[in-house]
Design goal:
By secondary structure, the chain is mainly α.
Length: about 120
């Protein structure tokens, strides 16, 4: 199997830039909410829900960004597209869906079963 590494690198770099912009914006929104002059308990509850939801999105996006950075590092090291568990190639179809995948489908399923 021969995958087009440059194609996946381009996809990863575009998503990285997009995530960095999203994280910057969420960070600013959370800071703005914390600076708000909250008048009553209803306002406080609404602001808390918004910032809690924003923070969860922020954490999820930050995790994806870290996975993308790891994938870009694997490209530089020449190990991109190789399963970290079994050292077999990751199918291109899987990389198209999740370009920062570390594991092939079989190993991913094993990890998910062990995690439950």
């Amino acid at each position: 199997m021969s995958i087009n590494i440059n194609h996946f690198k381009e996809i990863l770099l575009m998503r990285k830039a997009e995530l960095e912009k999203i994280l910057y914006n969420i960070s600013n929104e959370i800071n703005d909410i914390s600076k708000c002059d909250i008048k009553d308990e209803g306002d406080f509850a609404a602001a808390s829900m918004d910032s809690g939801r924003d923070y969860q999105i922020y954490l999820n996006q930050k995790k994806e960004l870290a996975e993308i950075e790891e994938a870009l590092k694997r490209i530089e090291e020449g190990t991109y597209g190789i399963c970290e568990m079994c050292d077999e190639p990751i199918q291109e179809e899987r990389l198209k869906i999740k370009p920062y995948a570390k594991y092939c489908i079989i190993c991913r399923e094993i990890i998910e079963k062990e995690g439950k």
